[in-house]
Fold:
Amino acid sequence: MANPLDGTGFNAATPLPGFNSGAGGFPEGSSGEVPLAIGTLTAPAGPFAGGPHGSGSGGGSGAAEHAHGGYNLTGFVIFLASESLIFAALFAAYIVLKGSAPLWLPPGVEGLEVREPLINTIVLVSSSGVAWLAERALHRRQLVRFRLWWLLTMAMGTWFVVGQAREWQGLTFGLGDGVFGACFYLLTGFHGLHVITGVLLMALMLWRSFRPGNYDGGEAGVTAVGLFWHFVDVIWIVLFALLYLWQGR
Amino acid sequence: MSTTPIPFDPRALRAPHPVPGAPDNWRRFFTFNTDAKVIGIQYIALALLFLLVGGLLAMIMRGELITPPADLVDPSVYNGLYTMHGTVMLFLFLFPILNGFNNLLIPPMIGAPDMAFPRLNALAFWMFPVFGVVLMASFLVPGGPASSGWWAYPPLSTQNPLGLLINGQFLWILAVAISGVSSILGAVNFCTTIIRMRAPGMGWFRMPIFCWTALAAQTIQLAGLPVLTAGAVMLLFDLSFGTSFFQPEGGGDPMLYQHFFWFYSHPAVYVMALPVFGFFSEIFPVYARKPLFGYPVVAIASFGIVLLSLIVWVHHMFTSGTPQWMRHVFMVTTMLIAVPTGIKVFAWLATLWRGKLWLTTAMLFAMGGVFNFIFAGITGIMLATVPVDVHVGNTYFVVGHFHTVIFSTITFGVYAAIYHWFAKFTGRMLYEGLGKVHFVLTFVGAQLNFLPMHWAGLMGMPRRVASYDPEFALANVLASLGAFLLGVAMIPFLLNLMSSWVRGAPAPANPWQAIGLEWLLPSPPPVENFEHDVPTVISGPYGYGLGHPLVADQARYEAQLKEA
Amino acid sequence: MRASGSTPSGSGPGIDRGAVLLVTLGVGLALLASSWLMAQVPRWLPPQASTAAPLVDDLFALEAGIGCFLLLGCTAVIAWTLLFDRADKYDRDDGEPIEGNLKLEITWTVIPLVVVLLLAAQAIRVNGQLASLGGKVRVAGAAEALQLVGVEGVAGVAGLPASTSVQSSQSSQLSQPSEPQASKASRSRSSKGASRGLGVPAADPAAAEPATDPITELGPVVVIARQWSWEFVYPDGVRSAELHLPVNRPVRFRLMSLDVLHAMSIPAFRLRQDVVPGSVIDYRLTPSREGRYRLRDSLFSGAYFSSNQTDVVVESAAAFERWRLAARLSPLAPSPNAAADLWRQRQERGNRGWATVPPAPPPLVNVPLDPNAAHEG
Structure:
């Protein structure tokens, strides 16, 4: 009987590259279907791995995983560039509205308090340095040190978020109070959301650091999250300058 | 049917085609399947379904417009219909179907086994049914769907007459936002794949033009969608949370939304057009049996278009109260886009010249598409000049212009691509006879539908109206007849697709004797295309008549195809 | 590389004379056809009723001529290949392996570049001559806009006696405008907008200019756009639902919207300008032909947008003067309004339809709209 796989390029003996076990492999069950793995989709290393590799002739699975680390970062950098444009657009909106609105500050509001946000800024920006220390420790495979610095980064990020929430609570104007209120809360809220996301991603990286052999294929995940954290910091610096330093018209 | 189970390798179920003996072959298209070829077909099939939805809306609209008064549906209903017609056609048909083609074509064309991020790929696809359902659900909420045009200009779009949190406009914004996320994820995937996963020997100027244009289009998505997202978020906040970004009473400016909207939505038309230019550039060499004329320049021109497309958006706002200097600057940049676009058009004509034309359905649609595009480009230049735009902007002249681009060029190109690559990815040949009927009906219908619109616009008929003054009646009757003919034209097309998939003639690996990596694979290709045996590219892509092979050891690949 | 001729007869070096003849003939025919097309352009357009119209039409005709020439040329190439370059039925051999031609590619890059730049220069010149768009002032809402332009009250003003004729421009009586249809979630009609009390200063005293001087600009005429009606307020206080203008006299407008975006579009004048809420926009034009023309809202503004139309009546200075004086004596009354009629019909049908804000009350005007008058263009 003719092999039904004829013409498909398969035969029973063909090993299928990319089906290796590990962080991203597909289980081979009799149904042949791919289960939905939502949990790993949020982690940069997860969804980008597990697919077939690029230049295939003779490449072993080790080369495949390594090549994947490279793709992950390429993809993530492209994504971050795109994400930064959202903030650029919001900044542009703020600048234009501030310059042209007939009404700007809501009645009774003189301006924004700068001191506490400045402290929060220093904490957030320093946390980037701490993250860098963590990445360096990981690069040297000093896992305990890595986890400590990483945890400190997360703590500093959390401080920032809490500080932001406290600032919000103390303000006398709300989201619906004219175009200034709208801009302020949207900008700081959208940024805050990114900080929270960053802290959660860091938590995921921290949890993964306890898995044996997690870094055999490289540290792309931690590098990506670190990059994200720096991105969040740079955005904040611009935001802080626009909102708090450039007051008055 | 035999009762003895036929053995099959379960991994084969990841292939996009039915495998004899495997149970539930059709299921693979309804699962979270990470194979780019399956995902590609999922996108295309669902997009064609939404083409029918958008087309149905158009039929009702043209039924309303065949007579001057608004006598078919209530004017408020008409407004919802035309808003959803535009939204469905753009976000649920055109963008997804082009993403489908990216998935199908890019990996085989560059010799890659799959996309760079297969699971992200599947995730991006599955967002499509989600936002499709959200958008369709907006027909059912109290107050009906969004009815302020696919532009959703505030303050009209934020009026929220019924005062409900969940309203049609809210769902519209949500659907567009999810679509944006899906597109950005897709763009990351396509760009990484093209940049990093090309076969050995395939330098940039040995890469097929379609991959150039796909990369260019996805670059635009990455640059433009974030700005639309920001604008959409602000619109949502104005609509639902009482903010004043675009409300004058709170100090906001409605014009700001227009800038955000058009900063993306103008380049968006090039996101749609560039892949189709890629289709034309692939198809003409095959059916004229000649190299693509000026291939390197055509490739670079794609990125010229990308750069220019990002600095022309204010031509949609010439009468919005923009200052004179701004109108002049953007008029000049808009006129400049004619140059790289013209380079492509002339290159296609030169590819045809002295060729040996084989008029298959794909070739007919491609040639028809280019012909229509020349007309559309001319009306585009007219619209670019401010004094003329002041007169015909926001009239049916614009509607005629953009439908000539979106339908008579871009959709023609999509049809051409379907007729050209269907055999490769399904393993079946489409029926040529039905294809030619489809072409003739579509070509005639398109001219009848959209040419009279230009005339109505010159005479002053505004766009988006449900009723109009009697002097526009003749133009509208002609346009409606053309539209109904286009509806009829879908019948041979759908019949052809469905019956050919099931019982069309088995397709050889290279039915069109084309040159390209995808044609060195069986029809349909195996799950990971070349798998371990990726060829090394040794020459440029359109070597018709030049007598040298595309890849090293080409005879061996061709022999393998004959064996299969 | 061969020159772009294609007749197979020439086999020696040098230019194929038959091809040159053919191409010259083709170019000549195309030029003829394009000129003919340019002459047809006026047939496709409304009558030229403003000083801007001939400028716009000429530019359009030029573009149509150039476009026609280009289209004919490209179509000729396509047709030629369809006729003479078809492969035989089973012939799958390759064609001529022509990969490019540097001179040709440079030509077809440079020539379009030059053409579009020249067109752009011409368009900039024409646009400068049109000189219609004036300045724009940002305001925080309709009330402030009305205050800026010096118009008192809005339609639906409670307490304004129905028989009041036009008050002198010095009067400043004002009552709180109320919206008969209450309970709208529509924020643009909420109390922040037009219903704030207006302490209106007198209208521009220089507006009451002598009627017989044709050179002086008429204006400013305030144009108030609503969902879904037009109201025109003349400098002397006359309010009209139709725009009457004296021929050959420049007129200045101040455009404002009480709710959403609209656009004032008069095809016969070839002019159009968006009306932006939160702004007052200055606009100028000069009508040049007597007649009655359509003025349409051309920027989608909601449910009964299609009905938001009125007429522009261009008449001699004397006729305009007579109209104005008669208008001053007419009482203020709500103008016939298609949107209001459609809304009423919708209510009679049980309010079936998709969500929309109710129409704004029809403007209270001295001169109502005449829905049955015939218009040209």
